[in-house]
Batch of 2 targets.
Target 1
Amino acid sequence: MTMNDRFLKACRGEKTDKIPVWFMRQAGRLLPSYRELRKKHGLLELTQTPEIAAEVSMEPVEKLGVDAAILFADIMLLPMALGIDLDIVDNVGPVVKNPIDSMAAIESLKSFDVKNIAYLQETIRILRTKLQVPLIGFSGAPFTIASYLIEGKATRTWTATKRFMLEKPEAWAKLMTVLSDATIQYLGGQIDAGAQAVQLFDSWVGCLSPSDYRKYVLPYVQKIFAGVKDKGVPRIHFATDTAGMLEDFSNVDAEVIGLDWRIDIAKGKKIVGAKSVQGNLDPTALLAEDSILFGKVDEIVDQLPSRDGFIFNLGHGILPETDHEKVKRMVDYIHSK
Ligand code: CP3
């Protein structure tokens, strides 16, 4: 049973007893117990083994005292369900065997079948019998997933992705359509199994100009948020490096907008409108000593005109070298404010 629902209340803009806090990438690399597990099992194997994946999702709740759990999964599980052959390589990330380079490659993708994520639904069911905090499901957004499918691996320039988008607009539109339709079913399948909120990670979309974002990406993001609205759970839209796109995000029908640290959170909240906000500490601040770190927490919390509708998080994923005991001290500090 969800005993602590302050995260869900904040998503809906309601008053909470304490500021809710969770961290992107909290499940996993940060905790010694996970690093031990990884010596024996590959990442994909862990995500596809419900009993173990549920353990990994629960660990940060127990050890850090966060107010929400996130499903232990990866954004690349969705394209895998569409028949994309890929591996996740240590210290590299996702590697796609045959990167997408044509309309024909897109047309040969399998259609999404919720049966292909039965293992994720099982993990969610196990988690819901054990967790006392809400469970967040998630998906990568179409642009971010497409960038891995086209580049074949992580990139910091997104050149192939942008060329594909500009030079093959019809194939791009097809790929975005296939991915956004699948995402609606993928998130729907997670919610049906028990996920109590969902977050869309558009981690790399900030590489686009705002006008390209509006033309090539925003309509598909809007379609996803509209497509899961009926399920009735809070929807979080997260992206990084998007200070120039925040006005466009106000046209996304989401309950919560996640912000990175490149904008003052109060200013970001004002631009996106009346929605709840989540963020936005620079993950590097967790490497500093407590007095400096807590000062940065104060800076974020104290600039907000109201604490209603605020969820404390980092501006992006927690860094692997972060000391989990320091994270715990920060969670306690946030809860004491
Ligand atoms: O970090 C983000 O921008 C969030 C979105 C995202 C996820 N996976 C979500 C995730 C992205 C961009 C990925 C791709 C991916 N998958 C990468 C990044 C590569 C790059 O381009 O920089 C990597 C390294 C992986 C593989 C992966 N996924 C590992 C090794 C792990 C285990 C734990 C960890 O963080 O090291 C994951 C799990 C994962 N990926 C989660 C999420 C939301 C699990 C739950 C959690 O947030 O704790």
Target 2
Amino acid sequence: MSTDLTERALSAYAPSAEFAAQANAQASLYQEAEEDREAFWAKQARRLHWHTPFSEVLDWSEAPVAKWFADGKLNVAYNCVDRHVEAGHGDQVAIHWEGEPGDSRALTYSDLLAEVSKAANYLTELGLQPGDRVAIYMPMIPEAIVAMLACARLGLTHSVVFAGFSSSALRSRIDDASAKLVITTDGQFRRGKPAPLKASVDEAIGGETPAPSVEHVLVVRRTGQDTPWQEGRDVWWHETVEQASDQHEAQAFDAEHPLFLLYTSGTTGKPKGIVHTSGGYLTQTSYTHDAVFDHKPGKDVYWCTADIGWVTGHSYIVYGPLSNRATQVVYEGTPNSPNEHRHFEVIEKYGVTIYYTAPTLIRTFMKWGREIPDAHDLSTLRLLGTVGEPINPEAWRWYHEVFGHGRCPIVDTWWQTETGAIMISPLPGVTEAKPGSAMAPLPGISVQIVDDEAHAVERGATEANGYLVVDKPWPSMLRGIWGDMQRFKDTYWSRFAEQGYYFAGDGAKFDEDGAIWVLGRVDDVMNISGHRISTAEVESALVGHDAVAEAAVIGASDETTGQAIVAFVILRKGVENTGDELVSSMRAAVAKDIGHIAKPRDIYVVPELPKTRSGKIMRRLLRDVAEGRELGDTSTLVDPAVVESLRQK
Ligand code: PRX
């Protein structure tokens, strides 16, 4: 991101008068929220159906654990499914599902209600009780969404584990949450080929030390491939769920009932189980989906390209859109299967109007060339969104021009697994958006950018790097880290404890107009294609390899993926460096421990790592090496000769 901030700040894109006039969210929303924040959020919460209305909006007396709408009761799945059917929209398509091999299914809201009810009945038959945890390890098929909604309906807390994570990553998440049930598929289609998935579950929970908490594994048949089976423990979805009654009455749960855990990377090797609850989470995902995406139920065709394994899939495929009665596209596969036209064919086929994706994919499309999108009719698109990492202005402009033909507003949405829903974003009918800036906190959200001493950073001060903090509680905020409230406090609330600010871990600045530019993580968390991976996780996977004595990992900037993982390793004594063969076995070790997404792009075998006198690895120096820059200040190095050896890497 080399463009000068001032130059970037000059070009802003205002929505067309036509778009502005019909927008769900108007400028008055800021004022309304400003005047009475709690009344504003109460109004948003009342967009949902409450079995028992709430009388209290926010209880912050046990900060940093917030309670929102605490005496209210609701059922999240009822809000996402039943109430639309009851209101006469049962025949509206909820999900246009597009399988990777070319198969497709449409599920109406009535279909979804029947499927979720069946699953809820069978999960009840399995003896699961509200509060029990269920792990979901599935590709992007409708049953994955049904499984999440069935859990929500029963007050079971789901923990979705991205199906690209390895069996050992799955195991540690199952153990941490003591999940009683795992829902999975026989296999998944990836780049045109079926790959086993249930086998990874078996590897995770079976063997010599079976996972003590797991009682059953519920398996959806997707690929039809041969599948290992353990009688008594494993059950087929089509023999159980599909045979169950499609009648089920949803019970209400407390607004603060835990809805899901979602594991995300922090600065240590152990992923954190971020806890989200029901009423506040659904309020904010629903409100933001309506206001930021300008979604019109029954008219729009919405497509969020995320996977349910990440928070974007939770909030903007499942809970936000379904609570707003969206008709959405869900696509199972990779964007270039069978070829690079696939995404654009999907947009054309379903007449997608709202499209939400990650900058890394936009940059990939740029690389493939504009003749591919230009070969398709994209005229149905009316709004575009991005999430996951800062978007470089070039990619923003390309997206605006090539996808949006210059007429679709772009919402660059900043948020995190922890925030649960969008926090900073343009309002598409109001904001003059600047390419690369997430612009301003949404109505109802309050953020600041502060320096080390918690002083507000001046606007427009180009050198004034600051930390992004949230200074007032918000409805969809995380309520803790599963089983580790101390870590929750230490990670997010200790940095600015006196002020009571939530520390997001991102660097940011305001430009002279007060627009927010998020600059990326300030901790040891890397952002690879919008996915969070910690340096410590990858280091520990590398050190698990027999040949490796020590490893240091950094995120180096990468044109397509934003950052790429680069590792520097020292071999154990006596180990011979066999070059490529050794390096591939190290990459395989990382894939096994975490998943393919965490495989380093480059691994350099080096004789030494640059360390300070206090023994800290100088990551800045490694970053310089990886990005081919002149090495910066090396005066604090213990052994300056190390620099020479790195240069020759
Ligand atoms: O660094 C920020 C970056 O992604 C991090 C959150 O990652 P995760 O919890 O996996 O959630 C990603 C999807 C919500 C943030 O700390 N990030 C996310 N959105 C943006 C962003 N950075 C800049 N601009 C964004 N729009």
